[in-house]
Amino acid sequence: MAHLGQNEHTIAKRSNLDDAFARLHKVSGEVKILRRFAGKRQPGLVSNAVRIMSTEQPEGPFQDYQKFLHDILKGESGRSMVTLCSGSLGKSRVVGLGPGGRTALVKYITDNRSRLDCETLSSLASLYKVPSAAELSLEDTQISDNNITEGDRFQVDESQPRRTSVSFGSRADSTSHNPNKDSSFIAETHLHDQNRKNSKGPTTVPLNLAAIEVLQDVVKEGHGDRLQIVFPDPFVQQPFMRIPLEIASKIMQKYTVQTA
């Protein structure tokens, strides 16, 4: 009986996934003909998705939906596909698919993008102010060589009072973990205003000997538990180390002395 119940659950999940596929094609077809959404609730669903994508979400359904939207946004025609997905399905249907169902849905959208996409979806994405992956910093800036200019740099804009957090992350290749590949480490400083409405891009600097010496001293002094290694969604961000601001200040002081 338990086995039968499990099969019924699997069939229900598959049915929900097939329904999601059908809804995507239905709404895509309507948009191509009408050059707008046919339903009254659809613009609100898109606006809700934009809000969820662009702000921090607690663990649970909202964060699951946010991760799904981010995965779609990072793909080709991401803004258009986010507009279609959110307008067609909404949060409840996407979250109800479960992790495996959401992964299958991302793959389906990737494989069928050319059939689903159209110019009107792009226009609707602009109308409802759907952000790009770059605007949400979903493109992993930690693995981009463009972040390191000639020489070392560590610049902090102190023109306005801001809450500062410092993290250390690896510039390792995000698609391969070949130990023979050359990789370096960078320190990343995120500056956010107190209301968290505006933010500056990360400032990066190589994690050099000065920084390593400070971190070693922290461990020797018995404060190693204050160094937190964070493992975020691997599709969104590389693992990194979060350290308290006062320790970061010591690194900055040593860094300034050694690079003066």
Automatic annotation (TrEMBL):
This is Uncharacterized protein. Residues 150-161 have a biased composition (Basic and acidic residues). Residues 147-185 are annotated as: Disordered. It comes from the Eukaryota. Residues 162-183 have a biased composition (Polar residues). It comes from Aspergillus pseudoviridinutans.
